[in-house]
Structures are given as C-alpha cells and as structure tokens.
Specification:
Number of strands: 12
Number of helices: 10
Shape: globular
Structural class: alpha/beta
Bound molecules: zinc ion
Helix content: 25-40%
CATH superfamily of the largest domain: ATPase, nucleotide binding domain
CATH topology of the largest domain: Nucleotidyltransferase, domain 5
Distance between the termini: 9 Å
Oligomer: single chain
Number of domains: 2
CATH class of the largest domain: Alpha Beta
CATH architecture of the largest domain: 2-Layer Sandwich
Order of helices and strands: EEEHEEEHEHEEEHHHHHEHEH
C-alpha cells in the first residue's frame, strides 16, 4: 500500500510517495508563496502530489491516502484549518479544496504531531505503541502517539504541550498566559537566560564569545559554553534541564509512554542534553520503583514531515 505525505511549511512544500514501512520512494518540492492565497497553495500541493506519484511510477488510484502536516491545527470534524499563523490562513476549507483535484482521501494534522508519528513508524520510537515527541525549537511543540495512533483530542487541539503552565505567574508567553513550559524549555529560553546572564556579568565567557553583542546570542552559544565547562553557562544549562524535566515528568505522569523523543534545534546538543535529562529524571518521576519512558533524540531529520504525514492515512 502506498501513501503520499505532504510537509506544508511557510516557505516550501515537500511531498513524497511513502510505503507502508515509512520508506520514501519518490519525492519533490515547490515554494509555498502563501501571499498568493490558500487556493493557489492548495492547487500547488495537489499538483505536487500528482507529480510525485507519476515519478514513483504509480497511478493516483494506487495511492491509499494523502496526508498533510501543517504549521497549525486542523478541525477533523469540519475538514477546515481554523488558523495557521505563518501561512495567514483563517478557516481554510483544506479537505474540500484538495477534493477539487483528487479523489484520494486527504488527512491533515499539526506538523509536530506528524513528526512524532514519523518517529513512531520509521524513527527512534519505531514499533512503540505509546510515544511522545517533543520539539525544542523557538517554541515547544509536541506529538502524542497512543496505541499506534496520533492523539489529537476531541477538537483537534490536543498536545499543545508547550503551553502547559509549569510556572505559575512565570514568564509572559506569546499565547497570552504566563509561565508556559515553552517559555522555559525552548531555544528562546536559553537565549533569554543567556542574555540575562551577560547583563548581570558582562565579562562572563558567554559575553566574551559574542564580543559583547548580546543580540547575537543563540542557543548553541550557551550550550557550547556549558559543554566547554564554563560554570555560569553550566548553571544556566542545569536550570534549563530542570525546567525541561518538569514538563517531561508531567508527560510521563499523564501518558506513561514507552519513549519520549526530543527533536528540534536544542536537541542538536545531542548526548550532552540527553545525559543531563537522564540524570535528572529519576528523582522526579512519581513511580520510582517502576520502569518509565526512555528519553531519546529524534532520528529522522528533514524527511520526518513527509513520512509522518503519509502515515496519517495508514
Ligand atoms: Zn503559552
């Protein structure tokens, strides 16, 4: 059985024909250019899907389903996308528009959810019934797979794990609340705390590493200084990992998954991050005498969006 997965991003659209095991057999891409309006973007997505099917040597009637991962949410009851900020979509009839070009069934879900599904089919959590995928980027996103299926909640808006409130009256979040997990566990948090450190200690190693130009501090600068053993950045990183683990423990207590997969920019800290998280979690989990989720780094990188979207229709 074959599926088409479409990774719809703000700048580009990627699509691929994917087999039952999550292996891509043909792929292609085109620009999104969202300023043209949703009709043109959806037209191009459909044409790209037809094109990759042709490339793979299969007719569209051999494709079981088309899945789309998008940087927003999807209302599964109406087939509409209520909003998708970086495409400037509001209440877009995605499924009905796609049906103008193809009669293959179309499914769609949030891109972090889709990346989690990809890991659970062809990545680090492959074969696991229950897993949670956490992206540590500008914000924190998540995908939850339960019983081998994506869990999207009753209204398609579940697993906005980045907006779990982990610090009451904490940092202001872009969502309007205060103290959301992503204010503490994202790359943005490392940058903010790095700048605060340099403001308090202008001759700290981090400030010297960016020649005092605090605006240029990124998450990698902070992590690199911690890796190099700078005590200020180690302390900062330790506090970051504590906040990260607060959210991870909440997820473990909620879902008891087999695996938690860490993806996104901060996960490029690799083993350094993994070791720190694995060292802190045991004291924080509730059932200390019971096994709990293995924490791993994401394995699929660029193609996770295509593979996971394709698997929505499986
Ligand atoms: Zn929030």
């Amino acid at each position: 059985m074959l599926y088409i997965g479409i990774d719809l991003g703000g700048t580009g659209i990627k699509a691929g024909v994917v087999d039952e095991k999550g292996v891509i057999i043909a792929k292609g891409s085109c620009p999104t250019a969202p300023e043209r309006g949703y009709e043109a973007v959806i037209h191009d997505m459909a044409m790209l899907a037809i094109d990759v099917a042709k490339q793979s040597g299969h007719a569209m009637n051999e494709i079981k389903a088309i899945g789309i991962g998008l940087p927003g949410i999807m209302d599964p009851r109406s087939g509409r996308v209520p909003f998708c900020t970086n495409l400037a979509w509001h209440d877009v009839p995605l499924i009905a528009e796609m049906a103008k070009y193809t009669d293959v069934p179309v499914y769609a879900d949030n891109d972090a959810t889709v990346a989690g599904l990809a890991e659970s089919v062809a990545g680090i959590s492959a074969g696991c019934e229950n897993s949670v995928f956490v992206t540590l980027g500008t914000g924190v996103g998540g995908g939850v797979v339960l019983g081998g299926r994506v869990f999207s909640g009753s209204h398609g808006v579940a697993t906005e794990i980045g907006h779990m409130i982990t610090v009451v009256d904490g940092e202001q979040c872009t969502c309007g609340n205060r103290g959301c997990w992503e204010r503490y566990a994202s790359a943005t948090a490392l940058i903010r705390e790095g700048r605060r450190l340099c403001e308090a200690k202008p001759d700290t190693a981090l400030a010297r590493a960016v020649n005092g130009d605090l605006i240029t501090i990124n998450a990698k600068h902070v992590i690199d200084q911690a890796k190099a053993g700078d005590l200020d950045c180690l302390e900062l990183f330790d506090r970051y990992v504590y906040h990260l683990c607060v959210g991870l423990v909440n997820l473990i207590n909620l879902y008891d998954p087999q695996v938690i997969v860490l993806g996104g920019g901060v996960s490029h800290a690799g083993q350094f991050l993994l070791d720190a998280v694995r060292a802190k979690l045991p004291d924080m989990v509730f059932y200390k005498a019971m096994p709990y989720a293995r924490v791993e780094l994401a394995k699929l990188t660029n193609d996770a969006g295509i593979i996971g979207a394709a698997m929505l229709g499986r």
